[in-house]
């Protein structure tokens, strides 16, 4: 853990606004591993859905003596990724984070609520809208899907890939940053070569 706060862009959402901070009543080690599961969920589903993963990492710092904060970041590039799979990848972090709490006997309603990643939902909504797909926050728009439906897709895939997510999360917790190729080696998944525009 560093005493230096990360660069502002690492704490911002895709629009440049600061992501909200949520209090999760856990020890530092528990919270750090939980964030590793969150980022591993994004990375593993990205790769499973054919996206090129660049890096996935846990970012922890000490904003003031005796206090700590933790977040994470996963960078990937997409090419012809089906839109609903892209959205499910966005939802996978939160789903994997809640699964971590349940699997490790740490789940409480308050902790589960603190896993909410509205910035991931808003990213999915905005990216899909650019391609003419309608993703609703709480309702099913005509011809589209709701965030709840997308979370269901992510939940099934996270369950199927839980062994891989768990392996990546534990190594990420120990190493802080993993490359896509390291994640591929850990999981047996293929990190496809990058072709096309960045997402």
Return the string of H and E elements: HEEHHHEEHHEH
Inertia-based shape: globular
* Major sheet: 3 strands, antiparallel
Estimated share of beta-strand residues? 5-15%
Number-wise, the strands total 5
Distance between the amino and carboxyl termini: 29 Å
C-alpha Rg (nearest Å): 16 Å
- Point out poorly predicted stretches: none
Helix content: 40-55%
Count up the helices: 7
- Going by helix content, strand content and strand pairing, the class is alpha+beta
Strand order of the largest sheet: 2-1-5
Mean pLDDT, as a whole number?
Answer: 91
Give a verbal description of the structure.
The protein has helices at residues 28-48, 83-103, 109-114, 118-130, 147-160, 162-175, 180-187, and strands spanning 52-61, 69-77, 135-136, 145-146, 177-179. The chain is α+β, with helices and mostly antiparallel strands and 199 residues long. The strands form two sheets. It has a three-stranded antiparallel beta sheet. A hairpin with a 7-residue loop joins strand 1 (52-61) and strand 2 (69-77). The mean pLDDT is 91. The relative contact order is 0.20. The chain starts with 27 loop residues before the first helix and ends in a 12-residue tail after the last helix. The protein contains seven helices and five strands; from the N terminus they run H-E-E-H-H-H-E-E-H-H-E-H.
